[in-house]
Write a structure and sequence with these properties.
Layout (H helix, E strand, L loop, with lengths): L18 H22 L3 H20 L10 H21 L28 H30 L15 H13 L5 H18 L2 H22 L7
Helix pairs in contact: 1-2, 1-4, 2-4, 3-6, 3-7, 4-5, 4-7, 5-6, 6-7
């Protein structure tokens, strides 16, 4: 992966696939494989392994020119990640309202893990899940949500839009869609989407959002394992 300055290359080399593919295809593949594994009830260990390998190969093959892992504000990004983690678990720890119908319903599902008890002690599965959620997901989701969609909603020629350009309609559409993918945790997903959107506006750097997102997910994974709060891994 590239270790370029804050803005990765925005120039399309001759013969290279359209930049949209690099930002969008890994996300579509990730979600698509997840949908197939649920529909076919595939063994979770192997479906996670396939998802990890396929999406990693796609990132290396088509996303590399648009990736930078040089955050502009690394310490602050870590702090943002910690803050989002606290916001994520805070309502359940302080108020315990997760089972209210606004959050658990036929549309949003329920705050219950799909991970069988037998897999919760599987080292292989846990490694795959932690690597996926803490490394792969932040890269794939930030490329899609704040690298592509937040800019594409401003201008279909999204490479002409700088990272972090603030347009209210794009800001709120992305925040709401980001919330919707988190099921019964939609309200903390919305808060996270707002914070990550604000952070890229502040830093103008996608790597900072990737780092913050990775920190959030890594701490959440540690909390799940140490506290046995498996419902956070849906």
């Amino acid at each position: 992966m590239s270790l370029n300055p804050a803005q990765p290359s925005q120039v399309l080399p001759a013969g290279q696939a359209h930049p949209t593919f690099g930002y969008v295809v890994p996300f579509i593949a990730f979600v698509g494989i997840m949908a197939v594994e649920h529909a076919l009830e595939l063994p979770l260990v192997w479906s996670y392994a396939v998802r990890l390998v396929v999406v990693s190969l796609l990132l290396a093959a088509i996303s590399q020119p648009y990736l930078s892992f040089r955050p502009a504000a690394p310490l602050a990004s870590v702090g943002i990640g910690v803050a989002v983690f606290l916001i994520w678990i805070g309502p359940d720890v302080l108020f315990g309202y997760r089972h209210f119908w606004w959050f658990e319903n036929s549309l949003m599902g329920s705050a219950a893990t799909s991970i069988p008890a037998a897999l919760r002690t599987s080292v292989l599965f846990l490694v795959l899940r932690i690597v996926g959620s803490s490394i792969l997901v932040p890269i794939v989701e930030e490329l899609f949500w704040r690298g592509w969609l937040l800019r594409w909603l401003v201008d279909k020629n999204f490479l002409e839009v700088p990272f972090g350009q603030y347009v209210p309609s794009a800001f709120w559409i992305v925040a709401l869609l980001f919330a919707s993918e988190h099921g019964s945790y939609w309200e903390v997903g919305l808060a996270a989407g707002i914070i990550y959107n604000w952070w890229i506006i502040h830093t103008k750097n996608l790597a900072d959002c990737m780092l913050a997102h990775a920190v959030t997910n890594a701490i959440l994974a540690a909390y799940i394992l140490m506290a046995g709060q498996w419902q956070y891994w849906l």
